[in-house]
Amino acid sequence: MAQESTTRRPTIRMVAERAGVSAATVSYVLSGRPGAQASGVREDTEVRVRSAAEELGYVPNSSARAVRTGRTGTILLSLTMLSDPWSLSIVRAVSRAGAGAGLTPLIAADTDWRPLIHKVQTDAIFIDAPAKGQEDLFASLAAAGHNLIVLHPEMEPAGFDVVRSEEYAGCKLLADRLLDQFSTVGLLAPRGLDPTNLGRRASAYVDALEARGLSVRPEWCPPTGDDETSAFQAALDLLRSPDRPRAVMATSEFIAQAALGAAAVLGLRPGVDIGIAGVGNAFDDRTGGVGLTSVGPEGFFEAVADLIVGRATGTDTSPRRAHAFAWQVFDRETTLGI
Amino acid sequence: MAQESTTRRPTIRMVAERAGVSAATVSYVLSGRPGAQASGVREDTEVRVRSAAEELGYVPNSSARAVRTGRTGTILLSLTMLSDPWSLSIVRAVSRAGAGAGLTPLIAADTDWRPLIHKVQTDAIFIDAPAKGQEDLFASLAAAGHNLIVLHPEMEPAGFDVVRSEEYAGCKLLADRLLDQFSTVGLLAPRGLDPTNLGRRASAYVDALEARGLSVRPEWCPPTGDDETSAFQAALDLLRSPDRPRAVMATSEFIAQAALGAAAVLGLRPGVDIGIAGVGNAFDDRTGGVGLTSVGPEGFFEAVADLIVGRATGTDTSPRRAHAFAWQVFDRETTLGI
DNA sequence: CTGTTAGCGCTTTCAT
DNA sequence: ATGAAAGCGCTAACAG
Question: What is the pTM of this model?
Answer without folding.
Answer: 0.85
